[in-house]
Structure formats: C-alpha cells, structure tokens
Amino acid sequence: MQDGSSVTERNAALEIIMQSAIELGEENIQVDGKSIVLHSMLFTNGDTSGSFVLELTKPEEREITSFEVEKIWREKVGELAGAKELRFFAGANAGGGAALQFQLVGTNSNELDAAARALESKLAEYDGVFDIRNSFSSGTQEIQLNIKPEAEVLGLTLTNLGRQVRQAFYGEEAQRIQRDRDELKVMVRYPKAERRSISDLENMWIRTPNGEEVPFYQVADVKIGTGFSSITRVNQKRSITISADIDPVVVESRKVTAEMNTEVVPGILAQYPTVTYGNDGASKDLEDFLTQLKWAFAAALAMIYILIAIPTRSYGQPLVIMSVIPFGMIGAIVGHFLLGKSISMLSMYGIIALTGVVVNDSLIMVDFINKQRRAGIRAIDAVVQSGTKRFRAILLTSLTTFFGVLPIYFETSLQAQFVIPMAISIGFGIMFATVITLFLIPSLYMILEDIKGRFSRKKQSLSLDTNPLQARDLS
To answer: Could you give the C-alpha distances from 413 to 59, 348, 350, in angstroms and in order?
Structure first.
C-alpha cells in the first residue's frame, strides 16, 4: 500500500484478495470433487504490506496450470484502491526475481524517472508482459526548505537553517537522567502549540552566525513536496530497476530483452543523456548464462573434433561427421514448436548434449566407408554400401533413443516439467538429424574425395613441371 496507509486499509485489501482466492477454489473443482486450493497462508510486513500464498494440488490432479490460476486470481482481484504495488507470481526464474529486469542509472533524478517511465510504457506494449513496476519509491508529503540569496549575505547556509528548524520542532538533547535502569533524554523544543502548522514554521526566528535574529520568511522559502521512502545507488549514482513478469506461453523473456536492448533502450538513452542502462536480476542472469553457454558449446565442438580427428587421421572427415549438428539443432527447435513448448535454459542444455549424440550415426557411416576403402573398394561403391548396409543400425540407434525419452514428453508431474525441454531437444534433434545423415554424409564424403583428388592432381602436375627428365620419360 502507499506509504502512510493505515492498517485498516491494508487489511481491507488483503480481505479482497482472500475472498477472490476462495471464489477461485470454489469455481475450479477437480474430478474427485475437491478444490484445487489445498491451503492458504497470509503474511504481513509492517503496516503497509502483506503477502498471500496459495498452495495448489499436484499439477497432474488438476486441469489448469498454476499460470492459469494466476491469471484468474489477478482478474478477480482487479485494481486495489491505494495499492502502491500489486503482484501475482506463479513461477521461478533463473537467479530468482522477476522474469524481466532492467536497471537505469543516472545523476539527474528527473531524467532518470522520465527514462524509467518511458521504458515502462514500451514494456506495456508487449502481449504477455504484466505486473510492470519500478523500484522508485515515493514517500509521504514533506516540507522542503530552500534558502534565499539574502540569507547567504548574512552568512547562513542551508545546513545551518535545517539544523535550527530541527531543534525547534524535533528538539535538541539537553541532558540525560538516569532513573533506575532507564536513561531519560531531556529534549528542548518549542511548545506543542507552536509547532503544529506551517505558519508556526514561517513565524519562527533564525539566528545568524553573528548572533542576530531574523524572521524565517526573509531567509527561506517553504514548499510542500513528495519525499523518497528509499533511494538506491550504484557507484554513487541513483538507480531505478524496472521489473515485469511474463506469460511464457505468449512470449519469451529472451526475445523481449533482446528487442529492448537493440531497439527501445538506445532511443530512450538518446533522449536522456545522463542515464545509463544495464540488465538486472533474471534478465542479467539469463544474459550471463547465454554467454557462458556459447563458450561451453564452442569447447564441446572443439573436443568432438579432436576426438574424431585422432582415429580418422584426417582434418576434413571430422567436419563431414559434425555437419549434422546444425540440423539436429533445427530438429530440436521444430520439436519445441510441435509440442507447444518455449525454448528454455534446459532446452539449451539438451542441444549441447545433442551435439555429442547426433554425430554417432555419421561416425558409423564414415567408419564403414573408410574400412571399405582400405579393402580396395572404390569411393562411390563404398558410399552406396554405407547407406544400404548401415541403414538398419543407424535407424535403430535413433529410434531407441527417441522412444526412450518419448514418455517424458507427456508426463504431467511437476518434477518432469523441468526436464521435458531437454528431452524434446535430444529426441527430436536425433530423429531430424538421422534423416539428414542418410543423405548428407554420403554427399559430403564424395565432395571431400573430389577436393582431395583435385589437389592431388595439381600436386602431381607441379612435380612433373619441376622434373623435366621424369616428364620426358613419361612421354
């Protein structure tokens, strides 16, 4: 709730949320006749905030997901009068916190606030992005003092002015008195009747450094403004964090972050030059994760290449074998699309694991071709035989892997939801790459042989040109 709200207002808001949760449970009944809501818990924090938690039944026992429950609950509650922040959350993100977080840092508080509002309005244009908020926390109304130029001539400073106003209205400690185990402070200040209104402030007298007294209104101005309940700084600069949650079925956080970074944020920063930008929270964790994933993927490819190059004793054949890896990745993406799943971090892990699996079928074919070549069979005949004689082995290898992970796709338990994206990447990636392997590898092997043959003929031609006696004997 807004700062300064009463406990009664907070409790009334929590009552609305609780009644909405009760209605939600009564309207959504399981097959066995029980409500999908098992338990509810209520927590309060101070006089202005509170949290309400629902524990649902197991996902396999209800027809709607926790994200759908979140949507229904949000719609039932609607707008709460006096609410400073209202958030519904049904998920866990990498690193915790909101799915989207953007951090703005600047030296000018007005430009920083304007940039934050512009960023919020752009986020609101995305479907599936909701509960947009920022960390800027305005406090209650306060009296703000400004010193006049005339006061500086008298030697007064804003610090001196503020100290005298504090002493008059809050008080100055004169002494401490010990009474038994307690210590009492004796404060000296204006009588209560003379410190209850702004007019009392304007009528007070201010003492100058030389000991003279002047009326307050001659040396200072008074205005009513809004203060800050909290101020966040990064490297001694004010910072505002804009946060939002997303519906993963509608939009991907990675896509929103990428578009904001490349299209929206540069335009906002151009309007407010004192503001700088950076990702924060789950968005930053995801960005760091993708960076680390690129290095891990590159290291995996390098190790696969080395391990294949040693037994084949070739620089080109490992590239032929690894050529199916991009097609396996395409198969993983197609699998996510067919099953209606968004690509997540675990999907990426599955794709990295897939790179070491899809090369097996290619390795079987190339190894068979090499053995046939060493037996004296022509390259074209060896390639054709590899497709016909190793077809069953390749197909069975891929099918056993695909059907081995197939039951995971349709598992409804909560624990399985975390590994389903990885299983989709591996299963569909292998099947897609297998079909490509049977056509791609033979073709690439023959292309490699043609290139090697052309280079060997050029090398032989050069050796004949440099040795005319050998060329004469051959003629």
So the answer is: 6, 22, 20
Residue 338's alpha-carbon distances to 315, 404, 424, in angstroms, are 37, 19, 10
Please tell me the distance from the alpha carbon of residue 49 to that of residue 137, in angstroms, as a whole number.
Answer: 14
Six-digit token string for 29: 């009944």
Q: Is residue 115 part of a domain?
A: no
* 125 CB neighbour count, 10 Å cutoff: 8
The alpha carbon of 81 is separated from its chain's Cα centroid by a whole number of angstroms, namely 30
At residue 146, the 3 state secondary structure works out as: strand
Return the half-sphere exposure (C-beta side, CA atoms, 13 A cut-off) of residue 333. 6
How far apart CA 390 and CA 365 sit, in angstroms, is 7
Residues 232-279 pLDDT 10s: 766 667 788 888 887 777 777 778 888 888 888 888 888 888 888 765
Distance CA 473, CA 466 (A): 14
Nearest CA to 48 out of 240, 229, 228, 241 is that of 229
Residues 429 and 322 occupy one common structural domain:
yes
Q: Within this chain, do residues 76 and 150 fall inside the same structural domain, yes or no?
A: no
pTM of the model: 0.52
The CATH code of the domain that includes 169 is 3.30.2090.10
Structure tokens at 176: 């401490």
Q: Could you please report the per-residue DSSP string of 79-128?
A: PPTT-S---------TTSS-SEEEEEEES-HHHHHHHHHHHHHHHTTSTT
Q: Are 368 and 389 in contact (CB under 8 A)?
A: yes
- Cα dihedral angle (416, 417, 422, 423), rounded to 10 degrees? 50
Q: What are the φ and ψ backbone dihedral angles of 447, each rounded to 5 degrees?
A: -65, -40
pLDDT tens for 213-236 read 988 888 888 888 766 666 676 666
Q: Which domain holds residue 439?
A: 314-466
- What does the block give as tokens for 455? 């280079």
301 within a domain of the structure (yes/no): no
**What would the DSSP string read from start to end of 397-463?**
HHHHHHHHHHHHHT--STGGGGTHHHHHHHHHHHHHHHHHHHHHHHHHHHHHHHHHHHHHHHHHHHH
